[in-house]
Amino acid sequence: xxxxxxxxxxxxxxxxxxxxxxxxxxxxxxxxxxxxxxxxxxxxxxxxxxxxxxxxxxxxxxxxxxxxxxxxxxxxxxxxxxxxxxxxxxxxxxxxxxxxxxxxxxxxxxxxxxxxxxxxxxxxxxxxxxxxxxxxxxxxxxxxxxxxxxxxxxxxxxxxxxxxxxxxxxxxxxxxxxxxxxxxxxxxxxxxxxxxxxxxxxxxxxxxxxxxxxxxxxxxxxxxxxxxxxxxxxxxxxxxxxxxxxxxxxxxxxxxxxxxxxxxxxxxxxxxxxxxxxxxxxxxxxxxxxxxxxxxxxxxxxxxxxxxxxxxxxxxxxxxxxxxxxxxxxxxxxxxxxxxxxxxxxxxxxxxxxxxxxxxxxxxxxxxxxxxxxxxxxxxxxxxxxxxx
Amino acid sequence: xxxxxxxxxxxxxxxxxxxxxxxxxxxxxxxxxxxxxxxxxxxxxxxxxxxxxxxxxxxxxxxxxxxxxxxxxxxxxxxxxxxxxxxxxxxxxxxxxxxxxxxxxxxxxxxxxxxxxxxxxxxxxxxxxxxxxxxxxxxxxxxxxxxxxxxxxxxxxxxxxxxxxxxxxxxxxxxxxxxxxxxxxxxxxxxxxxxxxxxxxxxxxxxxxxxxxxxxx
Lengths: 389, 217
Ligand code: SF4
Ligand code: SF4
Prior knowledge:
The structure holds two protein chains of two kinds. Chain A is of the alpha+beta class. Chain A contains eleven helices and 14 strands. Chain A has a four-stranded mixed sheet with strand order 1-4-3-2. A three-stranded antiparallel sheet of chain A has the order 5-6-7. A three-stranded antiparallel sheet of chain A has the order 11-12-13. In chain A, helix 1 (94-102) runs antiparallel to helix 2 (109-124), helix 3 (130-156) packs antiparallel against helix 4 (162-183) and helix 3 runs antiparallel to helix 10 (370-377). Chain B is built from five helices and ten strands. Chain B has a domain at 86-214: Rossmann fold (3-Layer(aba) Sandwich). Chain B is globular. In chain B, the strands form three sheets. A six-stranded mixed sheet of chain B has the order 5-10-9-8-6-7, with helices on both faces. Chain B has a two-stranded antiparallel ribbon with strand order 1-4. The chains are: A alpha+beta, B alpha/beta. One iron/sulfur cluster is lined by residues 44, 52, 54, 56-57, 62, 67-73, 77 of chain B. The site of one iron/sulfur cluster (SF4) has 14 residues of chain B, from loops.
């Protein structure tokens, strides 16, 4: 297994139950300050405003409690458990477990399923060809482009910015259609298996380059739209270093699982981690915008990729882990296999650290900042609200 | 990276110009065939009794509301690209001029959530068919239920349904919501839905046409 249980080693990735995952180890020791989020004591004149769990204003069901004396937000609690789903994974074959893993977060199905499969391959000591590794990069980067377009679209929406909102929606749908052509499914469901990948990149570079050109124009327009930028700048400033994904990179931290050698061959592509110093919604917006363009370059460098033939899934035993960079940040899977069936499985979602950072960054802001700040973290509740059985 | 709009535009002129420059992007669907229908989800055709993890194939019949498009039954069964995988059990013609839907995520994976929003993107533009999203069940003509049953959302679902004025349609979107799919149980029970929109997740074409047909179009 690539990761060892023991003392904390490397930067913090996140936790599942009693396990805390670091860049180089799995430990039962939490990082300093992790459990010390101060409990807010209600002051005279303050009240709780409950938002959700079901509201048209949010993409998914989630309970948000804002503590406020009227305008200023003094504390935020986020409860992702309302829509918690029980996934019966234990005892399942790898192929059947994959059907559930893909649906832990359907919008980031490539990130979840590939991280799971790489953990399976680690457990079974399976070699993966360079062709398949490149096909995985293709999927992850297409997923990132679509996810980042979605976040930027959602940042424009609360600003009532109709033209860019619609045009970003148009581009996002264009990318969904590209994914459908590449993987036979708009969300990569059924496109992967251990050691193989049913994706083909034929004809996508031209379509992606059109998306890139159109996006570049929109992004340039947004960067000069002062009213829009005012909503993002100094909104939701992150305060500590327990961060992941675009939120970390927007805070000057060069955290990106794509830089890790030995997982996927990103270093042979034009990939670079986009790092900004602003720490706020604006920084997170810029990181995502630049990443759309970098992901298009990465895909163009992969060359032509063809479907690889599905091989028999070996029925071995062992334990394995894998981590990769989802659009939200590090995603980590641990699996234990017995004769080809799932004995144990757990995962670390980037949403845990992002919710923590969101809560901290929301303090001292006002109501109208809420939607911009929430959307800028790109949090997916489906991934957090799962109980694995 | 230094990116600039250039050309001495004021920003309001820039966005106005962008809106015009792009032109009309909306397809004629459902009044014309879909321009780029996805392979999956779409109507599956084939024969035999291959293994299906959701029992969507039984006695040689394919049940769209159970299918999660996992490809386990291929090549015995193959996707046809046909997007007509919905069922309308009750129509409300009174909603032709204005049809407000309230979305409820009972326990969805996120993909259904995104596809429902996608019908408002320029390629589909549900607004041109007088279909709108409302943020409150009190203003809704239909509730669109996504995802499986979860204990935590049971009450929210009941409250939302009770808050809706008559006539109200209950629309089930996605395999989870219709039959429980691969994950769990349907939040309401299949027999109670007025409209079933199949897929995992359903494609925006299927959603759009099903909503239009729910009004008797
Ligand atoms: S695609 Fe999967 S779920 Fe659908 S009928 Fe075939 S085996 Fe069953
Ligand atoms: S039907 Fe499929 S896409 Fe929709 S919520 Fe269920 S698993 Fe996700």
